[in-house]
Design brief:
Elements: H1 6-9, E1 20-23, H2 29-34, H3 36-57, E2 62-68, H4 92-109, E3 114-120, H5 136-146
Parallel strand pairs: 1-2, 2-3
Keywords: Carbohydrate metabolism, NADP
Protein name: NAD-dependent epimerase/dehydratase domain-containing protein
Organism: Xylaria bambusicola
């Protein structure tokens, strides 16, 4: 395992032999909203630093970027998302994700990488305690009963 601050030393985690890079790092939704500077430093600055390192060390490498449906704001399109859907993020996290999607598109257009963005509606069953993600409660609903813990669901505390 490599541990590095991607904003400071992205090149230290990139190897010439890479065929692909899957970018899953980031400060999640409500965490990025709560700490504006940290959200932009990790979600935007570190991503751009990593893209620059990949382009310099592994030109045209396949890059898969995990974005979020947060780029669409509310309501999220009910049907399949197409190029006709307009991004209207309502939180810093969604803004940060659309900025990085734009980086991916521009670096790909210029032939520096071969990048694709994809959107997760949510990540369920995160390990450990509740995180700063807006959807963290979903993990608890599924994970906690598996270990005989009553799940915490905000707004449902007094329901039988």
């Amino acid at each position: 395992m490599i541990k590095a601050d991607l904003g400071e030393s992205a090149a230290s985690v990139v190897e010439r032999w890479l065929d692909a890079a899957i970018l899953l790092h980031g400060v999640m939704s409500s965490g990025a909203e709560a700490n504006f500077e940290l959200g932009y430093r990790i979600n935007v600055d570190a991503t751009r630093s990593l893209l620059n390192a990949l382009a310099a060390i592994c030109p045209k490498v396949l890059v898969l970027y995990a974005s979020s449906e947060a780029v669409y704001g509310n309501p999220v399109p009910k049907r399949g998302v197409t190029e006709a859907d307009i991004s209207t993020p309502e939180l810093s996290y969604g803004c940060q994700k659309i900025i990085c999607e734009t980086f991916i598109n521009d670096y790909t257009r210029r032939g520096l990488i071969n990048g694709f963005s994809f959107w997760f509606p949510t990540i369920s069953i995160r390990p450990g305690k509740l995180s700063a993600a807006v959807t963290s409660f979903l993990s608890g609903i599924i994970r906690e009963p598996l270990v005989s813990i009553k799940p915490y669901c905000a707004g449902f505390e007094n329901r039988g």
